[in-house]
Design a protein that fits this description.
159 residues; alpha+beta; 3-stranded antiparallel beta sheet
Length: 159
Amino acid sequence: MNMRDIKGVGTALLIALVTWVLPGRPLLADEPAAEEDTSLRCLNARSIRGADVIDDNHVVFEIQGRRLFLNVLPSTCRGLSQDGRFSYDTYTRSLCARDKIRILKDSGNQIYEGRSCSLGRFQPISREDLENFYRDRAVTPEAQDIEPAEVEDVVNEKS
């Protein structure tokens, strides 16, 4: 074996080692890198300035500095968007994924707590992306042509 063969074997071993040690990293620059998870498990409860219910699966939290976080609930929270209000308790000064929110219901003369639902992780979202998120969920029903009823048909149905 001459020196050139040894260098070739050494290079092959180095490539094999890098491939084995760094399997999650792309080897070529043009391969896309995996997206980094920027979501947070918890928000400081004292920094929360408000929350808006989008639907039964999504809540947006605003914290100090006007930063927004989208919370995708792990399961549908039926009735959340109907009432649009909720409460939460914190025991650690943080509101975290898996903590429970309780739907607030209005009976006319008093507000009471309804069902509880778990929170998911808090994903940072820009105001522009939030506007797009709202727009993408807006559903406009299609108009349908309806045949006008004839007076005879209505009279016959009652007899």
